[in-house]
Amino acid sequence: QVQLVESGGGLVQAGGSLRLSCAASGSIFSVNRMAWYRQAPGKQREFVAAISSGGTTSSADSVKARFTISRDKNTVYLQMNSLKPEDTAVYYCLLVMYEDRLYWGQGTQVTVSS
């Protein structure tokens, strides 16, 4: 059994910062990558950023240079700076293990006020 627990969401003014955390526990091995996705009301879930087991990172163009993903063992972080109202969404953590087994967190709400 694998559990992902997210934290760090909240309400922030435009231009502010938040740091999301996602701690994975349980039967974790052969991690391929960890990632963050987000889903705004009425929209599809979209990719935000990912980090591979080797430390290679990637991010969506919309957040590049503002958001930074990092990882410490089985915890993944998303440092979000210069937040915009359009960043408002529920942010989900994703863990990808061997054979592309996917595990999702429960989501954490991020609200950016203008």
Helices and strands in order, then pairings?
Blueprint: E1 2-7, E2 10-13, E3 18-26, E4 33-39, E5 46-52, E6 57-59, E7 67-72, E8 75-80, E9 89-97, E10 101-104, E11 108-113
Parallel strand pairs: 2-11
Antiparallel strand pairs: 1-3, 3-8, 4-5, 4-9, 5-6, 7-8, 9-10, 9-11
Question: Your description of this structure?
Answer:
The model has no long low-confidence stretch (mean pLDDT 96). The relative contact order is 0.32. The protein is mostly beta strands and 114 residues long. The protein is globular and about 40 Å long. Helix content is 0%, strand content 59%.
What fraction, in percent, of the residue positions are helical?
A: under 10%
Order of helices and strands: EEEEEEEEEEE
User: Per DSSP, what share of the residues sits in E-state strands of 2 or more residues?
Assistant: over 45%
- Count of runs of 4 or more consecutive helical residues: 0
- Given the C-alpha coordinates, what overall shape results? globular
Summed over residues and divided by their number, the pLDDT gives a mean of 96
Query: Could you give the count of β-strands?
Result: 11
Q: Which quaternary structure do these chains form? A: single chain
**SS class:** mainly beta
**What is the CA-based Rg, rounded?**
13 Å
Main sheet properties: 7 strands, mixed
**Low-confidence segments, ≥5 residues, pLDDT <50?**
none
Distance linking N and C termini:
40 Å
